[in-house]
Amino acid sequence: MGSDAIIKFTDKFGARNYKPLPAVLEKGKGVWVWDVEGNRYMDMLSSYSALNQGHIHKDIIDAVKNQLDRLTLTSRAFYNDKLGEFQKKICEITKMEKMLPMNTGAEAVETAIKAARKWGYLRKFNPPEVEQNEKRKMDKAEIIVCENNFHGRTTTIVGFSSEPQYRFGFGPFTPGFKMISYNDTNALKEAITNNTVGFLMEPIQGEGGIIIPDSGYIKECKKICEENNVLMIADEIQSGLGRTGRMFACDWEDTKPDIYILGKALGGGIYPVSCIACNSEIMDVFTPGDHGSTFGGNPLAAVTGIASLDVLIKYNLPERAEEMGTYFIEQLKNIKSDYIKEVRGKGLLIGIEIKKEKGTARPICENLAKEGVLSKETHEQVVRFAPPLTINKEEIDWALERIQKVFES
Ligand SMILES: *Cc1c(COP(=O)(O)O)cnc(C)c1O
Fold first, then answer.
1. Would you say the CB of residue 152 lies under 6 angstroms from ligand 1?
2. Average pLDDT rounded to a whole number, residues 35-50
3. Is residue 264 annotated as a catalytic residue, yes or no?
4. How many helices (H) and strands (E) does the chain have?
5. Measured between alpha carbons, how far is 109 from 155 in angstroms, rounded to an integer?
6. Could you tell me the fold of the domain covering 3-56+316-408?
7. Which helix (H) or strand (E) element contains residue 65?
8. Of 82, 235, 346, 407, catalytic
């Protein structure tokens, strides 16, 4: 079947919750993918940063293949011989004492919400009262979130989205969330009450349009949280694992949140692997039976996670993201086009905002695809460039030539 037939066939039996660009891909390697007609494209989206290590990274594929012949799934009813090493590795890179594995990003966000709430009831609010009266209603914990956030698609998470389409038709929603504007530390101070247990934030808003807060914001948020005994929860699912030129985007401000949420590139472009990492004081609020996942922490996922982290470290991908990102952003800023309102980015998380009067980003992404550069619009006006962190200068130059052509025509 050719592309057109496959698109029709795929759409026929599928839900309509996506509107993909019309490229039908069948093969990938590094930063490159090929469609069924044999056309080559550069992947400038990297599955929303789930492919930081590039397509089909040999080290990860070898590790996973090896594990496929041994043991893949045990559930957490039993121990397996791989999870411990994965946990240790996450704790080393996050400098935390514990981690809890899940699968998708949204599940890890849900896990962080549960951890923060239970921490509130057991550790922050009058603990003896909780023990004395088990029937006491545990319904007061508040979590502060930011406008323009993206944390996933579960009903609880979309309930605190500021994007009307993400919510429309899906209520009623989970209470206990309060929204403040992003990049506004005064708003955070003012929003905190005695019931606040956590502040859930993205160090850079990815889906929100590559919104980079003022320098000092992340550090100040942590300080405010500390002063008020509120947990700072950093959703680094997209910004973490090297993407912005540091292992975590919080590292840019030497800030360690109370809870990290990781996902996407933790699966090495193969398989969904996510987790939260935090210290024992928080993690130990979970006791057997409180929370779980059939697939979370399975040996195949653990091996995938270990190999994914090893590749990031072995090939210095965070440093590479900084170096290549700096070059890429600089060159993009040199493009002269009436369409461009702003080029912004950190490391290899880059957005070009299109002037409203010139239309949306979608037709630009369509034209880029015709030239062999795959990207995706985010929030109507922004073209996102987030290639695998393995990209080299020649490959960036290849893309720049085509990006320039599209913007200048
Ligand atoms: C992608 C993303 C998520 C959701 O991850 P899924 O694996 O799609 O559930 C959550 N937070 C951020 C910041 C993301 O970019």
1. yes
2. 97
3. yes
4. 15, 15
5. 12
6. Aspartate Aminotransferase, domain 1 (3.90.1150)
7. helix 58-68
8. 235
